[in-house]
Predict the 3D structure of the following.
Amino acid sequence: MWQADVKLPASKSISNRALILNALSYSPFPIQNLSDCDDTNVLVRALESNDRDFDIQAAGTAMRFLTAFLAKIVGEWTITGTERMKNRPIRALVDALNSLGARIEYIEKEGFPPLRIFGSALQGGEISLAGNVSSQYISALLMIAPTMENGLVLHLTGDVISKPYIQLTLQLMKQFGVEAEWQGESTLRVAPQSYRPVPFTVEADWSAASYWFEMMALSRSAHIRLQGLFKHSFQGDAMGARLFSQLGVGCDFGEGLTLRRTGQITRKFVHNFVNEPDLAQTFAVTCAMLDVPFYFNGLQTLRIKETDRISALKNELKKFGYVLKDPSAGVLAWDGERCEPESNPIINTYEDHRMALAFAPVALVRKEGIRISNPFVVSKSYPHFWEHLLAAGFSVEK
């Protein structure tokens, strides 16, 4: 039996929202247990900087949140990122901000970063936005909404995806003294009001926890305890605990969250990941390694993440002999079809932290272990992951 007692990284999603809300409240309180990942560090540097030009590298959250934040700060700003970031669309957010009184221009390619932002007071008002865009666009608008002269009425059209992330934003805004309300299923109203500074501590990351759930699912015998998680969490990825019950993993809250094997594994795993898209890679790899056919839908945003995650999963799982299909938009499935595996595969990570994190546990089911290229991409969300594996008894060689 191997054992792990893990102090999980702080939630990146909460950290980055809390940083913006802390800045909007002009708070004298430093945020406690702030995430130490790349995405949060670039946002900290930007908010503490006196520069007018920002390079947020590969941090998608920072790109969206800072674009909205800077649009209301008087001055002229530019914001850019990696080549991949320059190919991640941002038109929906820019159009929304410009319609609310902002002035934002594209420096290179229309609809994509880098951006030039002429910050000023925003009028606000009433706008419509497709509900199937990244929830980060919606959260970015909501967080600055109470600072607008007329507040914001936001109509979300069509299917609303990643709704738990919107709820997380609203809950955090409430903790900083701002009330926002749903009107029906698809309209959000935020009146003009002021944030208030409050002491704030960040919860551990349920997304990071999912990789330890995966390790328990793939282990014959293990004892894993995870520290820093809240039993009643607003993080959407807390759903992972319930989902992993279908793959033989139970959990109990006590002094931390203790994972256990139940042996009860579903014959086929079917789930709509519209509210937990960041868990899709974890479950695709786990299901494949357990030989559990699966059908995932609700994955519309996976093609515009750090990489095209649907193509990446198909490519890398095929190296182990699993033939995945994506029969329609937002769907990824495996019906049990196999092909000849590579004899000594190397996992490409595509500059995507979740590819490295999701595939690392495969070492538990391969006596020859697993090889991962560019492993330090995990710094984007879980910088001490390899150290935690070493502490748990894994052999990790560079």
In short: The first helix runs from residue 12 to 24.
